[in-house]
Amino acid sequence: SVSAAFWEHLRHLGLQDFPCGVGSWNKSRFDADTSSRGGQPGLGIDAAGQEAAVLLDEESPEALMELLHDRHSPWALPPDCSPQDQHLQEMAVLAPELVRGSNVFQILRSLRIIGKGVEEVDEGLLQLHHLEELILSANQISRITSANLPRTLKVLELCCNTVADLQDLCSQPPPELQHLGLGYNRLCSPSQDKYLTAAFWPNLVSLDLSFNNFMDLLGLVSQLSSLQKLRVLVLQGNPLALIPTYRGFLVDSLPKLSILDDVHIGPDERHQFHGLARQPELIRSEARVVVSIGEIKGVPDPSPRQQLEVGSEAPVVTYSYCVTYEF
């Protein structure tokens, strides 16, 4: 589940272990009783002297932070870690009580669980009352229940999973969601088109449906046209993207769109395709694929051997090849 992966992730961050958390390396800074303790009997050390002695054995916050940030340090996070992980570790040094136990739920704004074999989005996520970004890419999620998602979510990324049905996700979707990433899943039309409307996603600005199995361009566009705030759309990798008039029809049908398939839509392109949305008859149930063969290895090239003199009666050897593609 996501919750299990989350706790394992926190354990990996070592928020309670050196140089984070509270221990012999910084205990006096967080021990309210330090200043009130006197010297031990028979040692002849007053309270101030004992506190100074303790501090000599401890690390300053600056030194502990350096251990987190120095790329040669064994406690440094990998370069590709999220800003949220860095923030949690820094807080565990400066204010460890804020990331101890369930307190961490109050400060998390972003959660990234990528490639951890997660199959279930459980209700444990509801404890993250301020979560705005949830990244669950490259897992094994086939269905996701929206009732288990925090209502504060603005970004939900489910790329590279096995989602085939959006019904459960759309039962109580997060009302403020601005980006929905569903690329590289198993969604198909027309059964899923009806869930991609403003009735479920009134504030959606960015939508990624790339590399699924959407085939009905007209049906999909009729649903997407209700998303009045949509500015970024990714549909590449679907069968409908092979239709010759695919891009032009989308550009003219969704006039508020700014970026389609990671390519900016400029005024010239809008002018070029103006009126195409009113000609659905141009969208034929066929695809056009152009294949260019740059080089074939492992077969002889006959061209250098055929340079015979004009009128030569020498025998000519002809080669022919059959190249087969399976789609």
From TrEMBL:
SUPFAM superfamilies cross-referenced by the UniProt entry: Outer arm dynein light chain 1
Annotated keywords: Leucine-rich repeat, Repeat
InterPro entries assigned: Leu-rich_rpt, LRR_dom_sf
Keyword set includes Membrane: no
Superkingdom of the organism of origin: Eukaryota
GO CC terms: cytoplasm
Protein name per Swiss-Prot or TrEMBL: LRC43 protein
